[in-house]
Amino acid sequence: MKLEKQVGNKPQDIHERTFEFAQRIIRLHQHLYCQGGTERMLASQILRSGTSIGANLAEANSGYSKADFAAKCNIALKEARETLYWLRLLLACELVTEERLGSLIGETDEIVAILTTIVKKARQASK
What we know:
Helix content is about 80%, strand content about 5%. The chain has helices at about 15-35, 35-60, 65-90, 100-125, and strands at about 5, 10. A hairpin with a 2-residue loop joins strand 1 and strand 2 (about 10). The longest helix has 29 residues, at about 100-125.
C-alpha cells in the first residue's frame, strides 16, 4: 500500500479521501439503521449516495475519453450534493446531533468543492 500525502489528518488524494468518507457514511448508516423508523429510511438514502461518490470517481479513471471522465466526475459531484442534503436534513430534524454530524458535513462540503473544481477543469479539457 502506498502512502498518500496528507494535510492534517486528511489525505490529499481525492480517491482516498472519498474512500475514507464512505467508511464514515457506513458507520453513520449502521447507527441510523439501529434507530428504526425515519432514521432507518434516511439511512438507506445516505448509504447509497455517500458510498457512490468514490465509486463514481474510480469509474471515471477508466473513462474512454475526457468527456466520459467529466461526465462520471459530474455524477460523483451530484451524489456528494445529495449526501449533503440528507446530512443537513438529519441535522435539521434533530435526528442526529451536530456533534456527530458536524465534521461529516464539513467534509462533504470540502468534497463538493474539490469535485466542482475537477468537473470544471475536465469540461474545459474535453472541449
